């Protein structure tokens, strides 16, 4: 397994465990590797490293990179960044401007959003990802079974048409979604009779589908909680 693939798997595992977006999960992992990186509480699905301008105070950006958002955008405009892809822009910032890798990714995503090259929730490959989470007053094994046991799953997630890839009790669950995308779920015990599930629905084709999927999971996770807590 390549280092890049291993890192992506680590990010996805954290997403499943915490319910964070890919962006937030990746940021937290990078923060642990680089303690001086900024910490923010904002969450969205906007790309690989940053939620854009709103994720960082202007003073923090200037302090850490030597330039303000507006200065970075003007510099990238002059370089012709609107005609470049995500990897080219980030690599240019690292190699030619001396920006640290984490901040290079943050600036790149912010620039892409500011110039209309990337929408909130959009990954660099053009697909979208949404997340959701719920704490349920049942043991973690029961919560895991609600995903892994087909009969139980059909009671709160009817017609989903999942093709299970992996299911490791009671930690994580991965499945292809018949309607499109990949479902990743992670489970955490919060005590003997309380547990948490975080889901990420990845590889969605567009922003409209992402919005519908976000609303769908909000409704379905509420139904999951009601079903399990009613039955105890």
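Sequence proposed for the structure above (232 residues):
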């Amino acid at each position: 397994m390549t280092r890049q693939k291993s890192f992506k798997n680590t990010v996805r595992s954290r997403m499943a465990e915490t319910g964070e977006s890919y962006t937030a999960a990746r940021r937290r992992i990078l923060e642990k590797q680089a303690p001086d990186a900024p910490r923010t509480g904002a969450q969205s699905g906007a790309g690989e490293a940053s939620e854009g301008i709103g994720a960082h105070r202007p003073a923090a950006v200037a302090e850490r990179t030597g330039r303000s958002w507006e200065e970075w955008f003007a510099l990238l405009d002059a370089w012709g960044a609107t005609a470049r892809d995500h990897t080219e822009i980030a690599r240019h910032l690292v190699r030619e401007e001396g920006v640290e890798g984490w901040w290079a990714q943050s600036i790149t995503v912010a620039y892409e959003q500011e110039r209309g090259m990337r929408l909130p929730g959009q990954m660099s490959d053009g697909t979208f990802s949404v997340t959701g989470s719920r704490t349920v007053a049942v043991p973690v094994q029961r919560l895991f079974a609600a995903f892994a046991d087909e009969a139980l799953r059909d009671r709160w997630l009817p017609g989903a048409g999942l093709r299970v890839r992996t299911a490791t009790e009671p930690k994580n669950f991965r499945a292809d979604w018949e309607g499109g995308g990949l479902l990743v779920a992670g489970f955490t015990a919060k005590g003997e009779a309380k547990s948490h599930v975080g889901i990420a629905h990845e590889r969605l084709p567009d922003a409209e589908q992402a919005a519908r999927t976000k609303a769908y999971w909000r409704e379905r996770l509420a139904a999951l909680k009601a079903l399990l807590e009613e039955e105890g």
